[in-house]
Target: LytTR family transcriptional regulator DNA-binding domain-containing protein
Amino acid sequence: MTGRVPPLEIVSSGSGDRGGGDSLVATRTQVARAWESFATGEDIEHGVRPEILASWYRCRDQYEVDPALHVAPGAPGCNDHRLDNDVIFARLGGLGALAGREVEFDGGVVAVTDGAGRVLGSWGDPSARKRAEMSNLAPWSSWSEQCTGTNGMGTSFEVSGPVTVTGPEHWCEGFHQWACAGISIRDVVTGAPVASINISRWNAPMSERVPEWLAQAAASVEQEIYRRALSEAKSVLADFNGEASRDGGAVMAIDRGGNVVAANHAAATLLRLAEDSPVVGGVVEPANRWQPDIPEFAEVVRWATNRALERPQWTGHARLAVCPGEDPIPVTLRPVVAANHVVGMFCAFGQQEGEPYESSAPSAAVSLPRRVIGIRNDRLVLLAPSEIRYAEADRNIVWLGTDRGRIQAATRGLDNVEELLTPHGFRRVHRRFVANLRRVAELERGVKGELVLITDPRSHELVPVSRRHAPEIRRLLGV
Model:
């Protein structure tokens, strides 16, 4: 794995910048002044890179991280990462140790974390590591944005690709003389971060080549995750073939992320899948799996997976509105286990066995950002919810249709954007769309009977409503 990653160079070309020069704060006075204003409660729109300003908003308004923090808090003592990720951590640790030797004479520190931002190990220059430990950049400290503000490790969980944080771009004042760069390693099945790798320097800038190195390092580790995903899918398919031959009803198999790997013809008919859908024959490639547009399905899968991790022989059931416009039906879920790890679920429609699923009560009101934050070019855009007509998912990236044009949301994941917008009259209308029902001007019927919302008659902007969501949207719109 590490053979495919080039040597790591953290010193800028021709800079001779191995510490001892002016502080990073002094060379970035504009950012430092912006930080001072923002940390005291002012809102700013430029002067800071958009991904950094978006992080500041999260830290100040959502996570309420103390900007005067000088030491990262300790991480919880429990070890809750998936046991089958140990091979990932071993590979990442080997890469971190190798990189640590390469930066040892340039004042660098390399650290790796788990998916919660908990440091698992650090390597590099002994004096730099000693200084880092004064800020608790050491094993079993927590460097997520929620705990420690804007930093290479924590912020990498919130953005795509490598992220650099230099000097006063850090949210916490105690880290303003550090430069760091990090990247998250993500599970190809769930999209969730499972680890990160970060490089830091004290009082000196980072080479512009570091982000490229991080991207290649992450790709080399994610190859192992991809291979594991293929192996897991083969185990799920084998289990499905055995169960489907014994069960005459509608059955399907899903991966750990709730994506359908295989479904028999009865299930395909029930779910309104095309006859030539790849999942009818079974798919191994993660990109070809199908994501069901069934209300509460994702929550039920998370509940079942958590139960199965505690007891692999567990079985449970839920009632789900599988067919649009029809009453919910029971669905029994049973974990698929391979090598003592839960790798997926077997779902049998019309059956009711094991522990019942109970919907959680509506959560209490959450402290939300005062504005919805978007990114356009090199600028952060602060949007009132009323300016947004819809949100559209493109994998983990979310695009906002607004009165100021099409703008990328700073928050990743349509579920997270939906959570921010729901209190302002937005509703999920499709697995890829959330719409502002207060901005719906006209309705149309699609060619297959589905509903289409028109939020801007001047441009004839169309937002599709899936058949599953159509009855609820009609009710809310009073039509």
Remarks:
- The chain has twelve helices and 21 strands.
